[in-house]
Amino acid sequence: MTLFTNHRASVPSPARRRFVAAAAALLVTPVAAAGVPARPAPLAAPAAPDTAADYRRLLVLVELKGGNDGFNTLVPYADPLYRTLRPRLAIARDAIVQLSDRAGLHPALAPLLPLWQARELALIEGVSYPDPNLSHFRSIEIWNTASRSDQYMSKGWLTRTFEAFATPSRFAADGFVIGSYDLGPLEGGARALTIANPAQLEHHASLVSDHGSAHTEALAHILTVEADIVRAATRFRPERTFATAFPANPFGNVVRSACEVVGGASGVAALKLTLNGFDTHVDQLARQARLLDELAQGLVALRAGLVELGRWDDTLVLTYAEFGRRPHENASAGTDHGTANVHFALGGRVAGGLHGATPSLDRLGPDGNPVPTVDFRSVYATVLERWWNVDSRGVLGGRFATLPFVRA
Amino acid sequence: MAGATLPALDFARRIAATGALATFFAVAASHAGPASAQAVRTQPSAAAAGRVLDFDDARFLLTRTGFAPSRTEIEGCVGRTRAQAVDALLAGARTSPVVAPPGWTSDPETLLRGRRPRDLTSDERKALQQTLRQHALELREWWIAEMLATDSPLAERMTLFWHMHFTSNIQKVHDARLMYRQNALFRREALGNFGRLLHEVTRDPAMLRWLDGARSRRGAPNENYAREVMELFTLGVGQYTQHDVVDGARAFTGLGVDPVSGGFVYRPRQHDDGEKTFLGVSGNLDADGAIDAILAQHAVAPFIVAKLWREFVSPTPDQREVEAIADRFRSSHYDIKTALRGLFLSDAFWAPRNRGTLVKSPVELVVGTLRAVGLDPPKLRPVAAATARMGEVLFAPPDVRGWRGGDDWITSSTLVVRKEFLLKVSQLIPAGRMSPPAAAMRTSDADIVHVLLPLPPVGGAVAEATSERDPRAEIRAALLDPVYEVK
Known about the structure:
The complex is a heterodimer of chains A (408) and B (487). Chain A has 408 residues and is α/β, with parallel strands linked by helices. Chain A has helices at residues 5-8, 14-27, 30-34, 80-85, 113-117, 136-145, 157-164, 201-205, 217-234, 250-264, 284-308, 376-387, 393-396; strands spanning 58-65, 74-75, 97-98, 104-105, 121-128, 173-178, 192-194, 268-276, 315-320, 341-346, 353-356, 374-375. In chain B, β1 and β2 form a beta hairpin.
């Protein structure tokens, strides 16, 4: 609690009070928190991998759609340029949740502090790619396909992973997409389902059929989706209740569905969750605060839900977004499209702390954006090499250094 | 880009999809004419515009350019040549709606009447949100009603096309009147002139709010519209530089929205009248000058024609054909009918290989099905809600790029909502005594399939129902067959 010295002197802020409550919820053991006996390892968790890849380990991607502003997420408060570039948008010094002598979290992220202290939260700074593209759609495509900036690929990086290293046939699906219709990194052939309410999967399967042959690509796509629904439904047991209280907001619903999927599916390797609304060109302060609050509460609930399922220690949660935002605020009290961004990694085996390197605010490029310090494909390489224990070179089209944010 | 959430996914939790719709539907006693033309499946060859349409050709043309037609509509089109039929569709395009819009659309003042949201009390803010939600619902119902009632489905499809192209989202625009006015603009220029439409869109109040143009001023330009007008509305990625974005944003300063009337207002003192270089043009460019510079770019016509191709012809535009049609589109000074005529009379449009290659959008699926089977829902809210659960919330596209469309309409969650809707429709067509619409569709067993499906059914259920002489089961099987999802 030494990190809280600058809060002690003042009246507890709402963020501080939220932290205390969240800490209380988090720091107790799952058994005591749930008030129910510890449950045996769920049948859903496969006993052994069918392939070389260790798909007992779950990847949860969280898309911060629109491009979250990293400089007001992990605030470089000690850099005087931060306040110079952001006369209106800089977060007040005493509101920042201090993590180190140079950086701290946005106050709305205070609920994550217990994870930080438990070394289950890593922040990866400066993530982008060479020759960044400022279009939402092109840039997220680059992230989804793990391509170079000048390279167009149709298959998502997870789809390529599952093609190279198949998930066990007993798995309900390769991946589930929750909170968006966009398959993202699962685009282009993975067995992936978008799902709103897992409890209805069985009913949905009754509406479709898993056979027939297609005359056109559109029809082939429809038949594939029908077959995926049938297959997932036969490998899914929907009944599952949680002691975890999921926040009553859109991302809270997404997190609840995510936990239901993990608890009900016979197996799944990856989830993609989406929280939308980060394109804060105008009046950023209130909007980002609301979104980060929703995110932090959702992540805390995700942790609690996965702890209940006994899956937290084999879950890696990673955030991503198309880009960060420009250090210099714009005239509409917002920020425009940027490049290098900070991302979260959470999980029972995460090596907590600050990773990557802080992008320099005094050496901005011609468009006012910082120079990236970490290639996003290094993050993906870390997932492949250190999480799933497979060779990343074929999937990523080259060797990218892994990062030490996952413990062995 | 604005951060719209995905209400559809929340709806899926709250609404038991079947059941709710039932109470709102009633069967309309629409009278189809006696069956005459015997449907004969023939393949359109690489033939000329003089080729005469048979039953399948007519169904195909009307489905692709409008909403799925009733048997009567199909028969009215059989026997014309392709050129006659296409020219009739283009000539008959409406520019104003047949259904009266909600009364509040003609209010002279905006919801806020010039006040700033931060000056409202919390009660006033709540009331405002409530009104806004109510207006959004009414606006969606009105548009669905228009699409069900119109005698010019092509005009509505093109109005939808421009809505999907020049996205604006009511959640950020925050006033349904402005969305209605934008919708009226899209309909007025639906098949009009693209250049005029682009100039009008640039000063459209909903667009000025959506892409922050109203916030952009001299010394503090906002890049949002300048980027998207080139990337998404006219040229595509790679056809402009970041410098064009910066100077374009300066050219677009000075455009504003009157806070009381919600109308367009020009604010000369907020306009940056300095020297700019934009797409190779230098000078003191203003918004119209910048738009003219865009319209002078060669890439505009093929960009728009290719997008129209993906809407009406196939998911894979033929670059040579696109360029040829784009040349005519450009020489006509962006006359939209010229582009559409080129597409609708192209060999590719009629080619058998392109039938069944496009997925019906949620609105097409819902409106088309109701029109095809002659169901007339007395309440439209559940119908609008159904399209929302299928991923298409009218007036609220997911982001500035709009709905991706095509195969992306079909996901494991949206597909089941579509099937549930179709199942409900099939249950509402009375069994046993066969109501007029369904009976009219059933002059021979093959006709139901011909009216509804663009290709032979994939599943065996249709043939089974046909052999068992169970017309109701046949309609249900046809509606639930995967082939019904495409056009």
